[in-house]
Design the sequence.
């Protein structure tokens, strides 16, 4: 008896699964940074243009391929052309790399979540030193939130070479994160379909709560004004357009095979065109929404730091010159400083190095992205709110939902081809396959819990997926348009959804999107070649800040291996199919 | 007589001025921030507050060492500024014109810091003795870290969920297996009832356009009609 393919219970589950996968941490921690760097409100122009030129067409393409072929990525591309089986394998390899390191973020989110149930929050104050006369040295040099992240969470080593030992606390959290992922994917679409209702909708609830809280914070408006004033001259910077294209591309999660896997569980008559538009619009809207929240939090944090800085300067001057309390305020500070400089020039000159020039713009200008934004900046803002435990729990729970939603897509991309294949899928039940995949990933992921783990994490984050995905999606688009044929694809879409794609889709698929991807690819390659040696940011405990260091040789070898492992699959797959066909032809000819 | 008294007083005054001055030996600087601590309820620093301060220092000295006979008049204050900050020194009543060693004063104040602070409604940060570092109180640490407790709870829930799903999956699988083996048995039985004639099933024979032998009665004539 043929086992019928499992299906989503209703189209809503499919849409939620795609949203849960696409809306991830990148929307929260990458888009606000890009917005700030490339012209504030003006960045929305290249962003929306790239959404229309590249995001929607490529998303529709992947969903349509998955729904038509009703197979995971390997099987789907094999059906389009036997020479393309390498594309599917490359997708699986990239997804495998991603799932290895991505779940570590969920482990960190768990760690912070569990630590949010204390009063005061552990990152609010520095711990005391051994003889209890003051605070820990390292914590004094930097801030308590950075100390908590670098020392108590990561226990980071000074460089990549000093690997250190596995941190048992992080290893426990990582194991828990993998158990949670296993629980969600255990039954395939039956379990995933129910979980995505939660992982897709909960982050929006938390974002709305944060929006209300964020907008009512003191100083939030400063952040919003500063970030959203469009600096239209940035539009002339090519980097702005490239960043917009890259952000759309990676934010939708194209090329991993997850979208193909999700779409393969659809009814054949599902309207994937409408769903593609809905998912890409919701993804972009969420990015903009999240950046409003982030900028109001930035504004609050910057105003708070600015006012603390001013108060410190006031205290310093009061103590040095024994002035009456309350005589120096934020308003008369500059005049009083001039007066003091005139009347007591010598003492003032002695103090001068300690008197910092407090500037609100300088505080707002500190652009942060990635784990730094999510775990340091936000936790710093949270510790200064009222009832910080509540906001902390909500925030890290939201991060967890976003991360697990993306992990579900990643594991689906790996598991669907495995369960579809005859060698493995027919022999073992899917619970066993899922369990083995989760276990292998968890064991390999222990590397990222070592003291130097965060440096390896950065390597994987920057290099494991970037170039390979561009190549994979480029090959996909060209394969569908030119090898499979766009007319044949049109006919398939007509059979599925009852409507042929109009000229917008066809032009984007055939010309615009491939050209965009080729230009992105060329840009990245030239960028890597021009920068020469690759460098990374290492945490220096003695200074209390990040320093730049060069990667050692073996790290560069690992980077090369990561990129090669996935990109080489494409030509190798084509070569193997060619050889196999040649052998079969020879065998047939000798027999005949 | 009066002249002698005046002379002694002036000598004492000069001596006191010598003992208490900024950066003198065994002298300590104190800085008080009343407005920061109390805001609108701030009191003004006047001679009465100074008297209380002298009393508290004398109290601290007496409490520290039972042999001590420090009087309020032994504590000398000088250089009071608007900030409010001043220097103070403790003289030794037994030996004339000398000050109590700084280490003794420091130990005495350290021991009674809380009492001194609460007398003025201030804290360690707002009543600063500039050379005397305060021992910071450690944060309350429960015996098991809180995060492990939460971790344990979440872990148990997740593992219970996984076990439940796996067990129910195995049960469903067994039930499906049993059903499918029953159905297979049924199909076998059906196959067995397919009659074979010379190795060929009867339906095939029918299709091969065979002739019906009229000698044998047709099935429906076996039963005599009513």
Sequence:
């Amino acid at each position: 008896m043929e086992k019928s393919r499992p299906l989503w219970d209703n189209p809503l589950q499919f849409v939620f699964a795609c949203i849960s996968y696409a809306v991830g941490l990148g929307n929260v921690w990458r888009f606000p940074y890009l917005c700030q760097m490339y012209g504030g409100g003006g960045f929305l122009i290249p962003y929306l243009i790239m959404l229309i030129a590249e995001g929607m067409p490529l998303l529709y393409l992947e969903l349509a391929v998955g729904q038509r072929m009703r197979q995971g990525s390997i099987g789907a591309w094999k059906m389009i052309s036997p020479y393309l089986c390498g594309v599917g394998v490359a997708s699986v390899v990239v997804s495998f790399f991603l799932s290895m390191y991505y779940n570590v973020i969920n482990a960190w989110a768990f760690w912070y979540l569990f630590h949010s149930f204390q009063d005061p929050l552990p990152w609010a104050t520095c711990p005391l030193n051994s003889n209890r006369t003051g605070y820990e040295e390292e914590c004094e040099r930097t801030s308590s939130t950075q100390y908590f992240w670098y020392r108590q969470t990561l226990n980071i080593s000074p460089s990549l070479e000093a690997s250190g030992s596995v941190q048992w606390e992080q290893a426990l959290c990582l194991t828990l994160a993998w158990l949670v992922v296993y629980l969600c994917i255990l039954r395939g679409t039956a379990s995933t379909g129910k979980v995505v209702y939660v992982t897709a909708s909960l982050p929006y609830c938390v974002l709305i709560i944060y929006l209300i809280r964020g907008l009512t914070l003191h100083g939030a408006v400063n952040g919003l004004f500063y970030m959203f004033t469009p600096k239209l001259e940035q539009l002339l910077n090519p980097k702005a357009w490239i960043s917009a294209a890259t952000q759309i591309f990676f934010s939708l999660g194209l090329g991993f095979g997850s979208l193909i896997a999700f779409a393969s569980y659809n009814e054949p008559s599902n309207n994937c065109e409408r769903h593609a538009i809905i998912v890409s619009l919701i993804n972009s809207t969420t990015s903009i929404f999240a950046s409003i929240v982030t900028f109001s939090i930035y504004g609050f944090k910057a105003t708070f730091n600015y006012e603390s800085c001013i108060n410190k300067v006031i205290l310093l001057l009061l103590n040095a010159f024994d002035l009456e309390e309350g005589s120096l305020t934020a308003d008369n500070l500059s005049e009083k400083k001039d007066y003091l400089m005139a009347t007591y020039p010598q003492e003032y000159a002695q103090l001068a190095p300690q008197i910092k020039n407090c500037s609100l713009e300088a505080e707002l200008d500190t652009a942060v992205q990635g784990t730094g934004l999510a775990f340091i900046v936000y936790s710093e803002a949270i510790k200064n709110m009222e009832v910080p435990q509540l906001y902390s729990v909500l925030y890290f729970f939201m991060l967890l939902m976003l991360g697990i939603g993306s992990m579900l897509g990643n594991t689906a991309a790996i598991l669907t081809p495995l369960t579809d294949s005859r060698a493995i899928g027919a022999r073992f039940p899917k619970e066993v396959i899922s369990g083995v995949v989760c276990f292998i990933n968890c064991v390999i992921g222990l590397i990222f819990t070592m003291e130097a783990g965060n440096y390896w994490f950065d390597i994987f984050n920057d290099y494991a997926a970037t170039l390979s995905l561009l190549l994979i999606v480029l090959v996909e688009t060209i394969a569908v348009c030119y090898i499979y044929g766009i007319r044949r694809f049109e006919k398939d879409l007509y059979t599925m959804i009852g409507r042929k794609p109009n000229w917008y889709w066809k032009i984007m698929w055939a010309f615009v999107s491939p050209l965009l991807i080729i230009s992105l690819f060329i840009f990245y390659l030239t960028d890597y070649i021009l920068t020469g040696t690759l460098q990374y940011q290492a945490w220096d405990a003695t200074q209390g800040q990040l320093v730049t260091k060069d990667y050692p040789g073996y790290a560069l070898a690992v980077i090369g291996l990561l990129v090669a492992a996935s990109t080489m699959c494409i030509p190798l797959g084509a070569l193997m199919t060619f050889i196999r066909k040649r052998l079969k032809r020879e065998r047939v000819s000798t027999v005949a | 007589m009066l002249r002698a008294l005046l002379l002694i007083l002036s000598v004492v005054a000069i001596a006191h001025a010598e003992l208490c001055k900024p950066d003198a030996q065994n002298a300590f600087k104190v800085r008080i921030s009343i407005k920061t601590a109390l805001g609108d309820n701030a009191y003004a620093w006047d001679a009465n507050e100074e008297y209380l301060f002298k009393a508290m220092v004398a109290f601290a000295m007496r409490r520290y060492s039972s042999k001590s006979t420090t009087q309020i008049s032994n504590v000398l204050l000088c250089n009071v500024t608007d900030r409010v900050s001043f220097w103070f020194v403790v003289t030794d009543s037994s030996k004339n014109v000398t000050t109590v060693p700084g280490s003794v004063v420091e130990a005495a104040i350290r021991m009674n810091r809380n009492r001194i602070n609460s007398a003025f409604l201030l804290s360690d940060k707002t009543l600063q003795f500039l050379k005397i570092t305060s021992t910071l109180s450690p944060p309350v640490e429960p015996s098991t870290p809180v995060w492990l407790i939460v971790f344990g709870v979440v872990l148990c829930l997740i593992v219970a969920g996984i076990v439940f799903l796996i067990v129910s999956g195995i049960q469903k699988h067994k039930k499906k297996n049993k059903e499918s083996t029953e159905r297979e048995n049924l199909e076998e039985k059906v196959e067995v009832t397919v009659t074979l004639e010379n190795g060929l099933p009867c339906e095939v024979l029918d299709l091969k356009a065979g002739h019906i032998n009229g000698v044998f009665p047709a099935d429906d004539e076996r039963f005599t009609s009513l």
The beta strands of chain A are 535-540, 545-550. The first strand of chain A starts at residue 535 and ends at 540. The mean pLDDT of chain A is 89.
